Amino acid sequence: MTKQNVVVPEAMAISVAAVTNSSPLFPYPPPRSGCGSGGAGGVALKKKYLSQLELGGARMNAWVESMKASSPTHAKAAAALAAAPSVGVQDEHATWIMRHPSALNKFEQIISASKGKQIAMFLDYDGTLSPIVDDPDLAIMSDAMRDAVRNLARFFPTAIVSGRCRDKVYNFVRLAELYYAGSHGMDIKGPARGPRYMKAKAKAVFFQPAGEFLPMIHEVYKVLLEKTKSTPGAKVENNKFCVSVHYRCVDEKSWSGLAEQVKSVLKEYPKLRLTQGRKVLEIRPTIKWDKGKALEFLLESLGFADCNDVLPVYIGDDRTDEDAFKVLRDRGQGFGILVSKFPKETNASYSLQEPSEVMDFLLRLVEWKRLSLKARPSV
Ligand SMILES: O=P(O)(O)OC[C@H]1O[C@H](O[C@H]2O[C@H](CO)[C@@H](O)[C@H](O)[C@H]2O)[C@H](O)[C@@H](O)[C@@H]1O
């Protein structure tokens, strides 16, 4: 195993929480953020765990623990919460909600922060605009959600930022007026014409920072298809600049075998790395590009580089969205909104429980904008 394709920090942090059961928070660390590492105790745990990982044998366990923890819907995680003293759990939940209040409850606060600024919307797809389902090909977005997003884009520049390849996510969303960043931001394309309200500010957008990896990703996709076909329920998805290996429908007993299969393939590709999403292993180029970088790139393309008159709002449910939440937090600009029913460590400022709440939030934004335009004195 070469160094390039080991993603110790994410897997390790997840596993520490999962293995030690030190907190009723669902194990969902923001990658590379250092946030929620648990102070000195957390560092000690990480060190201890790192040495376990270095023992080699434990490394696979770490991956499997991490895979188990990768979706808050995991039955055992839910059972663990149910078994924990309910007062403690409730306290933890209340504390978490205080730190990441509902974006619906704090709508006025969000709006008042947007005074004099153009709101720009960034939306993840799976788990945010469409509910999580077993078959990735059936993650259909409702017509009502599509209408909400269509109306949103009439007032605010709107981008979909997804781990799926751009064509696939476009086929689900089917709104030509949006910006799309597929393959975790490695394939960005804007609409033929920028939004009218952006005047001449917005530039034409097309950017593929991982172009040179295309043949390699395609090859790895084919190898993984072959390699994993002995694992019932495993599904390999070609996302153009990255590959997803789904294990949502794989028997838990086979997870470690599947992780082993994937890692044995990756040994041959030191320029690729492995990350995790919700019951999915993601294989992607080692380039320093993620949803956070895509967000910055889009803001610049929209004419908002180094300027204060924009309020970016990013809504997402997954670990990969943490890169974008962190960018907003570091810039001290705009807000991240995490979609989750359960407390998770996050760089987001606000929370929403599920896609239906995301839709309510988008509808309220549209309604607020309509009313504020109506209330404007005519010149
Ligand atoms: O960034 P996203 O738009 O959230 O994409 C992340 C991955 O989403 C999809 O997988 C997830 O949703 C599936 C459908 O609900 C679910 O079956 C799977 O378990 C989830 O991981 C998509 O299929 C992946 O390619 C994306 O990378």
* Helix share, percent: 40-55%
Ions, cofactors, ligands: which are bound?
the ligand O=P(O)(O)OC[C@H]1O[C@H](O[C@H]2O[C@H](CO)[C@@H](O)[C@H](O)[C@H]2O)[C@H](O)[C@@H](O)[C@@H]1O
Which value, in Å, is the CA radius of gyration? 21 Å
The poorly predicted ranges are 1-24, 29-56
Strand content: 5-15%
Mean pLDDT: 83
Strand count: 12
Structural class: alpha/beta
Total number of helices? 13
Q: Walk across the major sheet and give the strand order.
A: 5-4-3-2-1-10-11-12
> What is the rounded distance between the termini?
67 Å
The CATH architecture of the largest domain would be 3-Layer(aba) Sandwich
The CATH class of the largest domain turns out to be Alpha Beta
- What's the structural domain tally? 3
> What's the story with the biggest beta sheet?
8 strands, mixed
Shape: globular
Quaternary organisation of the protein chains:
single chain
**CATH superfamily label of the largest domain:** HAD superfamily/HAD-like
At CATH level 3, the topology of the largest domain is Rossmann fold
Organism: Cocos nucifera (Coconut palm)
Cofactor: a divalent metal cation
Keywords: Hydrolase
Enzyme class: hydrolase
